[in-house]
Amino acid sequence: MRDILAAEVKRLANTVIWSWEGFRAAWATEKTLRQWTVANALAAVLAFSLDLAAAERGLVLALGLLILAAELINTAVEEVVDHLSPGLDPRAKKAKDCGSACVALTAIAAGVAWVVVLVG
Ligand SMILES: Nc1ncnc2c1ncn2[C@@H]1O[C@H](COP(=O)(O)OP(=O)(O)OP(=O)(O)O)[C@@H](O)[C@H]1O
């Protein structure tokens, strides 16, 4: 039992370490990730400055974080596509455009949430 617990703790610790390494690697190369992170920080300041209900605040903050998650997935797709398909290919284009659309949709969702929270 103790061994299983130790293995699970090690697995969890590795997951945290590798996730952090992934974020740092994307941060180093992806300007859009850095821009969205700054936008998230500003949005968080705004969310805590305004007189919002807890659910409203939670919604806009969570959707902001979702944009960062989408941006990381998009980066992962781009890396894999560039590795496997250095030349032009319609499937590479489709994969990259879908990743881009994923980020755009999460950004629209966050924007819609902000408009609804602020305007009603
Ligand atoms: N190998 C390829 N084959 C065909 N089209 C490609 C290929 N690589 C990129 N493209 C096209 O060029 C666009 C931009 O690709 P690029 O790799 O420059 O992404 P990016 O500018 O870093 O995108 P993002 O702003 O989402 O990070 C893609 O969305 C796709 O339409």
Automatic annotation (TrEMBL):
Residues holding ATP: 11, 30, 78, 96-97
Keyword Nucleotide-binding: yes
GO terms for biological process, alphabetical: phospholipid biosynthetic process
Active site: 71
Source taxon at top rank: Bacteria
Residues annotated as transmembrane: 98-119
Cofactor binding remark: Mn(2+), Zn(2+), Cd(2+) and Co(2+) support activity to lesser extents.
Protein's name in the database: Diacylglycerol kinase
